[in-house]
Write a structure and sequence with these properties.
By secondary structure, the chain is α+β, with helices and mostly antiparallel strands. The protein has a single domain, classed as outer membrane lipoprotein receptor (LolB), chain A (Clam), CATH 2.50.20. The protein is built from three helices and eleven strands, in the order αββββββααβββββ. α1 packs antiparallel against α3. The longest helix is centred in the N-terminal third of the chain and has 30 residues. The termini are far apart.
């Protein structure tokens, strides 16, 4: 009997603990208007890094280090990837970033998903939306978004890790302006 009581107690404890973590992640997202961070991106084994700023909803500006002046910009509707020699423009809604950059959508999904604790320091939520699976990762201590894993628009496997995260900074109004094609 004691064995069943212990198992029941542990199930209740871990269930409540995960619910508390999930609520703190949701509250942290609610309180976050923008993020600035360094990133490391692994696309099919190729490592790229740089700096990004996200402003909710759906805006992002990234500068890649040592990469032909590569930038990635979304103004909330379009996503542009530009280098010295190329220019690509996509409707944001056709990319996985449409989900990642939509704080309200993330909150709604997280509220209805079970948290998975990984290595006792990461919290993972797997979001299935329109034939896309996106794994979102949060730090278990700070409740900050620290990365995601998805398949990009070219069907490349993409893992992005965030570090040096700063929240709710004053941002330039022109930061998310779509660059011209030149």
């Amino acid at each position: 009997m004691l064995k069943y009581f212990t198992i029941f107690f542990l199930c209740i404890f871990f269930s409540n603990s995960n619910a508390e973590i999930k609520n703190k992640i949701i509250q942290n997202l609610i309180d976050t208007n923008n993020l600035n961070f360094k990133f490391e991106q692994n696309v099919n084994g190729k490592i790229k890094n740089g700096n990004c700023t996200i402003e909710y909803p759906k805006k992002i500006f990234c500068e890649y280090a040592r990469s032909n002046n590569k930038i990635l910009v979304s103004n909330g509707k379009s996503l542009v990837i530009k280098t010295r020699t190329s220019y690509y423009r996509y409707p944001l809604e056709k990319t996985p970033l449409n989900i990642i950059l939509d704080k309200n959508f993330l909150i709604e999904k997280i509220n209805n998903l079970n948290a998975r604790i990984i290595d006792d320091n990461l919290v993972n939520f797997s979001i299935l939306e329109k034939d896309n699976e996106i794994n979102i990762f949060f730090d278990k201590e700070t409740y900050d978004l620290i990365g995601w894993q998805n398949t990009d628009i070219y069907q490349n496997f993409n893992i992005t890790f965030l570090s040096s995260i700063r929240k709710n900074r004053v941002l330039s109004k022109n930061l998310f302006k779509i660059p011209s094609q030149n």
